[in-house]
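Quick question, first post here. What does this chain look like in 3D?
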Amino acid sequence: MTVDLRRAPAPPAAGGRVPPHNLEAEASVLGSLMLDRNAIVRVADFLRPDDFYLDHHAQVFRAALNLYDRADPIDLLTLASELEKMLVLERIGGQVFLAELESRVPTAANVEYYGHLVEEAATKRKLISAGGRITALGFDDSTPAGQALDTAEGVIFNIAEGRITQDFVALKDILKTTWDQIEQIHKDQSVISGVPSGFNDLDAKTGGFQKSDLIIIAARPGVGKCLRANSLVDDPVTGARLTIEQFVRERRPIVYGLSPGGRIEWRHIGDWVDSGVQPCFAVTTQTGRRIEVTGHHPFLTVSGWQPLHDLVVGDAIAVPRALPSFGKESMDPQRARLLGYFIGDGGLSAGSPAFTNIDPVIIEDFKSIVSSHFPGCHVAQRGLSYFVAAWPRVRRLAVRERLAAYLHRVRRPIAKSPIIGWLTHFGLWGKKAEVKRFPDQVWRWNRETLRELLRALMSCDGSIFATQNGRPRIEFAVASEGLAKDVHHAFVRFGIVSRLYRKSERCWRVQITDSESVTRYQAEIGWIGEKANRFPQDLPQFRGNNGHLPIAVWKMVGQVASTRGLSWAKLAVASGERARTSKFETYNPRT
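> Answer (accepted):
Ran it through. Tokens below.
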């Protein structure tokens, strides 16, 4: 006996119950599609092929959607041709089956009603299937209850989400209104037809939030950050320090960021978004690093990424100990040192450039560089200061005029002095001590060139001395807040942990206290002159107060150590620490 599966009753479900379905409604939908070529428009927005209970019906509807997507007419012949391309025409019964579907319905006027009957039955079948999955989750002892609830919620949500649709409308009904909006936007480029989002770039693309639209803006944690426009950021490619505003304006594609493993690396920018005017808050760390951000800007804490508005004073946040963001540009090492001398002890605001220092090694190096690189200039000493001026043009002057020119060469330097032109190129000429900063070019220098500038600058305005317990300490003290910040940031490039703070109204200090950073400074940068001989290379080892892991981390370490039977002392010894016995070298394994 042959059984026609197309007309066979649906197999009963478990327990003898047949899943909900409506074969008559399914056939009526398909027949309507062949009677009226526009009927597909009324059901395509909410019906899917898998909503049909009978597979043959699902295949026919899938073929109809294919024709609709290509804007081809839908009738018995085109459907048969499409089903043949899909290699299912013979399996469903050929053109005879299609003709039977077409003859089942007298009119296509009720196609939408038939479609919703099919949708209702399909939704109930999905609920039955979801119920089975949820029941299985309940009996699964290996799945935590919370995870099971989340999974169950997701299963139900997916069913509900599939029912959210948006009706189609005729083009003629919206064409005039839409065209008027386009003309208005063309006339006034600044028009926002909807509700402004506050994000200028987004409003420029969308025209604002429109009526009847549900807009949800979301992203995973850490992908969106809002900084003040003048916040300085290192360019990984060139080493330059640029403001966020410059990055956005130039659409630079790469910044430094954290990898999933917690390492600082180059990260590609998804997009730059102008978030408009928003309130910003200044965040200052114990080591003097400062940034201004919005309240939702995330910071990395012991508990993971946390927005600023969830943090309180005293919370520990992660900052990079080292960021070797050096550029590729270079300069003659002697010229780099000369620039450091002028930034440190230079008088650059009036008359001739002056340099004031008492270290004979530094003075000799200064004179030698000027003589070698600026032969048109000479150095004249007046007290503790050394003035650099261009030689006067005296060949055609009388003896008396020559003598006058010689006597006044310091007070009346030639305006086109090469040294002044050089300092002007770096933006230093005319700057008083309170406003000196690193020239922009410095940040694009390579490691060796930046080292020479820092070595000269620190040898002038820096100091290395012994504290009460004999430990070496390095300090840099200047009147310029900006210059102190520049040195503080330059140390980060060399992996030197330092602290920036304001000592008095006209004094900013950068201080290096822990032995690891002092040793690194001595090896990486060093000194010129007498300061180079103040301490031996083998410096005593100790711990400072900056740059350590938060106490909360040590609590975690202690818990793990206790499970392994390790005391703090045993843990410290195992990590290579050695206790000290002197008054000032007491041993604290938590540091």
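The first helix runs from residue 23 to 35.
The radius of gyration is 39 Å.
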